[in-house]
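fyi for ur records
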Amino acid sequence: MRKRQFAAINLMTTPVVTLSVVAVYIFNITSFYFYLTLAIFCLFQGGYGVMKRESTSSIIPIYEEVNQYEKSLMGEEWVKQKKVINYWLILFSMVLFGKSFVFYGSAALVLDVDPSIIIAIIVMIILMINIGQLFHIYYINRLIKNGKVKGFWWKQLVIASVIGLLVAFVMMFVMILYITSGI
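which gave:
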């Protein structure tokens, strides 16, 4: 089941992320429309998740199977995890709406950078998704074996936040080096 989950994730995210970045690059989409589109997408996804409540249903059969499996193992922790994810998506959409209105009326382009950086960003996004999924599966399997499911989600949230901040700092550092090097 996990192999099919990884296949589904990669078969969906790789073309979607690649085509999205290429479309933004080719059509010279402004920052306002880029952030507005992301905000609407995140709001829809979070709102739909809140409306689903504890349902494990999904359009994609493998996700429904994984949701049922994880919910049967984690119980109430799975429900908490889904709630937190959905509310974070809604909060993130509000941040993106704010960011889009900062760029309202601006002609600033989203991707006015070298294509090699775009390729690096695509590869990094796909790697982060896969590594995050590996950690998630590892922690669930380990916790189930140890019987320590209680409090799992908050620990995972703290670890993910720290890793996310580290990756963001590394990306900023690399971009600053790239910009100042004049390559």
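The first helix runs from residue 2 to 26. thats all i got for now
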